[in-house]
Amino acid sequence: EKGGYEHFMLKEMYEQPKAIADTFSPRIKDGRIEIEELGMDDEAIRAVKKIVIVACGSAYHTGMTSKYIFEGMARIPVEVDLASEFRYRDPILTDGTLVIVISQSGETADSLAALREAKEKGCKVLGIVNVVGSSIAREADNVMYTWAGPEIAVATTKAYSCQLIALYLLAMKFAHVRGTISEGELAEMIEDLKKLPAQVEMLLNNKDRIQKFANRYLAAKSIFFIGRGIDYAISMEGSLKLKEVSYIHSEAYAAGELKHGTISLIEDGTLVTALLTQENLYKKMISNIEEVKTRGAFVMAVTNEGHSDVEKAADYVVYIPKTNKYFTNSLAIIPLQLFGYYVAVGRGCDVDKPRNLAKSVTVE
Ligand code: M6R
């Protein structure tokens, strides 16, 4: 049932182009974003004062990405919280707060408890869920499904990618209704969304090059990921992918935090993966690359096509094709998924079922 792939993780990575298209296609009609299952008319969308996103693990990372998108595109304040933190801190949920719970399985105990807490406090809860009919899907006021299909590998790839798409669609809908993007901008974004499946496919087809590179790091002690803004959120997911399947210690840092302590961890030969997909933060990131290189780091950079000047600062560069600045996560994550996967394969790890982890965390 692995369809010729060595692992479910690789198979599911390869299912991403289709899963992404399946998630956006039914929600784009006549150049408009239609999310009927949202259960909110334009007036209700305009009345939202704040969004609170609650999730665990990779789903939390998609929430982090969407904070930058909702705030940047739709100008709505967003708080993102880990479900296990949210539920125990008696959160302040004021009138006009929309709570979004993101979960692949729909069964994560802490996310479900957070949903109940939010409902009890009188908030409307929207679930972004992959498993149809799961507990979170049943208990949320409204459900927006990600159409990734069944995901078997413990490390999420295609469900993560679909969660991003669902969140892009929501942000676009909110931004359009609230008038923070123009008709033209919306049309352009829809065009860029439609290009994502083929672009993801292209990045997947680069797998041999990533594998070769990954094989150089099978004995690494620690690997770091740095970025700013959306690139910081991408770093968090890249780091989680690597550590959960390969058991190599890895951390993600907001690049601006390096100087506040973490740069002391860089040694000769330490691999630092730098994300540079946000043009406005590009120069700052180049300085961060130079800082870690001075301390002996080897830098792999993931950046936008056309930025060949990054090759002057970084040792190894992976390019992602051109897309909207809010959608770069969908592309930049592909080489990072492949990297984590191939490091784990090279180390002989049980890629689909990493030690100590379960696909759905139904206990607290
Ligand atoms: O089913 P959920 O999306 O609620 O699961 C949340 C996390 O347990 C999950 O994303 C976990 O971090 C993955 N193993 C990451 O690949």
UniProtKB/TrEMBL annotation:
Its BP terms in the Gene Ontology are: carbohydrate metabolic process; fructose 6-phosphate metabolic process; protein N-linked glycosylation; UDP-N-acetylglucosamine metabolic process
Q: In the Enzyme Commission scheme, what number(s) does this protein have? A: 2.6.1.16
Q: What class of enzyme is it?
A: transferase
Q: Which residues are catalytic? A: 359
For molecular function, the Gene Ontology terms on record are: carbohydrate derivative binding; glutamine-fructose-6-phosphate transaminase (isomerizing) activity
Q: Name one GO cellular component term.
A: cytosol
Tell me if Lipoprotein is a UniProt keyword of this record.
no
The SIS domain extends over 41-180, 213-354
Chemical reaction(s) catalysed: D-fructose 6-phosphate + L-glutamine = D-glucosamine 6-phosphate + L-glutamate
Mind listing the UniProt keywords for this protein, alphabetically? Aminotransferase, Cytoplasm, Glutamine amidotransferase, Repeat, Transferase
Kindly list the places in or outside the cell where this protein is found, as annotated in its UniProt entry. Cytoplasm
Record's subunit section: Homodimer.
Known function = Catalyzes the first step in hexosamine metabolism, converting fructose-6P into glucosamine-6P using glutamine as a nitrogen source.
Q: Name the chain's protein.
A: Glutamine--fructose-6-phosphate aminotransferase [isomerizing]
Q: What is the lineage of its organism?
A: Bacteria, Bacillati, Bacillota, Clostridia, Lachnospirales
Range within the parent protein: 245 to 608 of 608
